[in-house]
Model the fold of this input.
Amino acid sequence: MTNIFDLIIDDLRILDNDNCPVEDTFSQSMVWLENLGRILQPGSFQLPTDLRTHGVMKPGLYMTVVLEGIGDSYACDGPEKVSYAANRLLGMAIREPTPCSGEASRGPIRAVGVAFPRTSIAALGLDPEFTDLFKATERPVVAFAVQAPPRIQAISRQKSCHRESTVLQRNC
Done:
């Protein structure tokens, strides 16, 4: 696991259809952008099998534009579930460490993600706005999924097509 990845998640497990651990190669595409204190993760992956992930997401704001692929992300102990497919914009704001899971179907996944750890949000002076996201809920997670606007799709396509890899190194 990279130090960058440690800023946003603890105890990550990636499992295949047979419940076998899969080596993390996703975090290799992460880039820390110092000027805004955020993580950028462009990716174009070919999944040879369905995958499931489990981990504890750290507080922060997470946004992803999915250009291709099918799956779900969700808080393990609550109703927040974000299903994704082509050309969707997903977001999760997490105010306290929260166990989360995800599922991705076999096949291509092209996406670009941006993560703002809570410390970066505070450093940007946006802590009050971040806290306001939770006004209507007692839950530690606020999630959404919407159709990505065409301009966002175009920018994401430019960022995601620079890296393509096949992911599956079983550890059973």
User: Anything to note?
Assistant: The chain has one domain: 3-163. The CA atoms of residues 44 and 163 lie 6 Å apart.
